[in-house]
Amino acid sequence: MAAANLLTLLDDIAVLLDDVAMMSKVAAKKTAGLIGDDLAVNAEQVTGFASKRELPVIWEVAKGATLNKAILIPVALLLSAFASWLLIPLLMLGGTYLCYEAVHKIQHKLFHKEEEKSRREDLKKAFRDKDVNMKEFEKKRINGAIRTDFILSAEILVIALSAVTAATLAVQLGVLIVVSVGVVLGVYGLVAGIVKIDDLGLRMQDNGGFQESIGDALVQGSPVFMKGLGVVGTVAMLLVGGGIYAHYIEPLKRVVHDIAHATGPLEAVTPYAVEGVVGLVVGAVAVVVMKGVFAIIGRNGEAH
Questions:
Q1: Distance, CA of 226 to CA of 252 (rounded, Å)
Q2: Measuring CA to CA, which residue among 80, 281, 244 is closest to residue 155?
Q3: 197-216 core/surface letters (b: 16 or more CB in 10 A; e: else)
Q4: Neighbours of 108 (CB within 10 A)
């Protein structure tokens, strides 16, 4: 009897793990764009440190990101169990934030080039200035990266949860854990590799010959790669944010479908282009609204 019960338990566990694996694939597909954005944003956040401090900084951010997900998983499950109606509004809110961030970045690149250049120069000066408390400086950057990760993690988990709302609580928990572990290991493992590309290039340059040529290419290509990653991250934010709007607002969903259907051979890629445009529009509106809010806050502050 005990053996039969054990076999039943093992069978139930096997079924549960199989369900978790299958649903995790579905959730991973839905969150792929946002995970790519998470990678790009984090790579950008942790660059600029002295070479010997890059990996320790990434480790600190990774620990903070793990804690973020440990906090967010039970919150997400509680929402799913007792306030599932909040999931879509939260998705929309997160989508708006992503669109806002993307358009804000584009705006700065296009219209605030001098400000961006000045910010980078200030960063370089901070590393050269002996009077600057580098521990405090690092701590601020790390805390900023962890805050950004919290917002992106919340969005990733809500999207993952929206893909498995029909599953049991155990499967939902398993999927969120799998996605969270995968994101932390994948994102911060890749970030660690990315920020060390130039170091690898410098080592290969010392070996001469063919390796020196590869080292030169890595050193010269690393800044270009980082800029490209930033562009990819911005595009990913627009696509994910716009896609949330296009998927959950029924009239907009029909418009996207009709436009895609009308493009014939391009039907497979047209929805992404339309979602990107939606993301741009949502982000532009959000930027205008936030500028108004900041202006009002500023005036109120001056009045007081």
A1: 34
A2: 244
A3: bbeebeebbeeeeeeeeebe
A4: 13
Neighbours of 142 (CB within 10 A): 21
Which among 132, 151, 127 has a CA at the least distance from the CA of 54? 127
pTM reported for the whole predicted model = 0.71
User: How is the chain split into domains, by residue range?
Assistant: 2-226
208: region left, alpha or beta (phi > 0 left; psi from -120 to 50 alpha):
left
pLDDT in tens, 66-107: 999 999 989 888 888 888 788 788 888 888 888 898 898 888
CA pair distance 107, 104, nearest whole angstrom: 5
Q: Which residue has the tokens 């590799």?
A: 193
CA–CA dist 140, 195 (Å, integer): 19
Length of the chain: 304
Task: Give the C-alpha separation, 60 to 34, whole Å.
Answer: 22
Residue 165 CA to its chain's centroid (Å): 22
What is the rounded distance in angstroms from the CA atom of residue 178 to the CA atom of residue 175? 5
Q: 232-248: b or e for each residue (b if 16 or more CB lie within 10 Å)?
A: ebbbbbbbbbbbbbbbe
| pLDDT, tens only, 111-141 | 766 665 665 555 555 555 555 556 677 787 7
Nearest to 19 by CA among 197, 183, 167: 167
d(C-alpha 42, C-alpha 36), whole Å: 10
pLDDT tens for 26-62 read 566 666 666 666 676 666 666 666 667 777 888 888 8
